[in-house]
Predict the 3D structure of the following.
Amino acid sequence: MAESSTHRLYLSPPHMGVRERELLLEAFDSNWIAPLGPQVDAFEAEFAERVGVPHALALSSGTAALHLALLEAGVTPGDEVIVSDLTFVASVNPVRYGGATPVLVGSEATSWNMDPNLLEDALRDRRQAGRQVAAVVVVHLYGQPADLDAITSVCDRYGVPLIEDAAEALGSVFRNGEGAELHPGGMGQSAIFSFNGNKIITTSGGGMLVSHNERLVSHARKLSTQARDAAPHYEHSEVGYNYRLSNLLAAVGRGQLQVLEDRVSARRRVFERYQDGLGHLPGLRFQSEAPWARHTRWLTCLTVDATAFGAGPEDIREALQARQIEARPLWKPMHLQPLYDACDLYGGAFGEALFRDGLCLPSGSSMTDEAQDRVLETILGLHRP
Ligand SMILES: *Cc1c(COP(=O)(O)O)cnc(C)c1O
């Protein structure tokens, strides 16, 4: 596709292959237009296989998946749930759906994800204060797995279930202490993924809940379909939801799953071209890959020291915007959000600095070299030695 200089360049646009269209039309022609159906079953099985976790439930969004994961962890009104502070708001909102209270834990500098030492401080402190922490939600931000060995061992010691928010981390790899290569999503009690339009693969909207626990997934399945009891008529004994994925969208997801590895390679290549083109400049620092991680580079993230570089992150964002190129600040920490600024917080200063200095660059797997060169030239042009 020709890339004209007026063509708007997005942060992370959908990137469809040929198979997605064929599968979608097959599903359409089969008249399985309902939620549920053979494409949903196949998508769940193929997804479970891909992430190496035996049970998967396809849902209407990652947010819905997290809501069900919290319910299955036994979170009830009045409980506390510990959540990563540096994240997208959808990691925290489902805690409030169930009447629980979020407690925020800040990031470490290696992966930018939840600091296991701060998590331990939080768990110790909450226990001493007599609070009931019902779950920990760890986020694998921007495609980089958190320090899962340390986090799982802290959670085990305190007997608190771990839920992985892997919405941004599909396709990443975590190397554990024994050197085994694992996919984030299998280390806790359950994990959630998202297929929203901006994620590494997309169904336009959708999500997945995975777990090693078959009973957990089958009960979540029941809750996601209005919690109907086993009876020929409509019988209900608990509150349910309407959270299932459409059969049409599952067909798109199956096609996308087949090209996941290509999408990861393409995003990593985009990151490398940015780093090669800009990494030598004073004041620009790209997010590093943690020693335990294969980062997907879902988004290329960097921090900008305005004094050293000669322009700040907002100057760069505005210069890109003027050339029809979308860039964004890093996630604004939850403790700085009007919605969550009253929550108890452990750490948080590192996330604040990232928000102040950081920037996400266009990172789509379909971006051409020519399009990326427009970004590189714009940023190079702002450097004042
Ligand atoms: C996208 C995202 C979600 C929510 O997923 P949806 O499918 O959009 O509901 C949750 N957590 C994180 C970290 C995300 O980036």
